[in-house]
Amino acid sequence: MTDVLDDSALDRLFRTARTYNRFSGELGDDTLRQLYELLKWGPTSANQSPARFVFVRSKEAKAKLEPALDEGNRKKTMEAPVVAIVGYDLDFHHKLPYLFPHTDAKSWFEGPQEKRRDHAFRNGTLQGAYLILAARALGLDTGPMTGFDAAKVDEAFFKGTSIRSNFLVNLGKGDPASIFERSPRLSFDEACRIE
């Protein structure tokens, strides 16, 4: 990979991409599958791939999600065509014989779930970021958020499993009138150093 993406691609993924607060449109199963088929190629440590996604689209599923949302996120989330629950599987290691077959990586993570939490959370968060970039690459707009009660989401969507919720991402066609003025970012010298 030696070619740099052109400016329009870099703008779409990063420079002009925004977090939207109102959405319209419809997202079919094919689009959601295409989204996952892109994001799954993003790297994770030892190919752990601990992220698990629930695409909340139906009225019934949204009714289960609504009580967990903070007041400031409720309306925009209920109106979004799809809400992705980005979760992480604390028992991701059971898939490692398939995902990382050239060594016994499963044994690295045996034992209590708490021992795996940092790995699952960190790599699941990476995969959630890949979801945002994949959505933008497919022409979708996103609205990621953490303003919700994770315990309520876990109870409603992951009860009896080893999966825990991390963050939510509203998906659809964003309304430009719903975005805030662009917030600043730290400069290279404020955020980085070269040694």
Report a brief summary of the structure:
The protein is of the alpha+beta class.
Give the tags.
195 residues; alpha+beta; NADH Oxidase; 5-stranded antiparallel beta sheet; oxidoreductase; EC 1.-.-.-; NAD; NADP
SSE run: HEHEHHEHHEHEH
- How many domain regions? 1
Report the end-to-end length measured between terminal Cα atoms. Answer: 26 Å
Q: Would you tell me which CATH topology applies?
A: NADH Oxidase
Rg from Cα: 18 Å
Which blocks of ≥5 consecutive residues have pLDDT under 50? none
Calculate the mean pLDDT score and round it: 96
Strand content: 15-25%
Report on the architecture of this protein:
- This protein has 195 residues and is an alpha+beta fold.
- It has one domain (19-175): NADH Oxidase (3-Layer(aba) Sandwich).
- Helices cover 39% and strands 17% of the residues.
- The protein has helices at 7-15, 29-39, 59-65, 71-79, 96-99, 114-137, 150-157, 188-191, and strands spanning 23-24, 51-56, 82-89, 141-145, 163-174.
- It is globular.
- The model has no long low-confidence stretch (mean pLDDT 96).
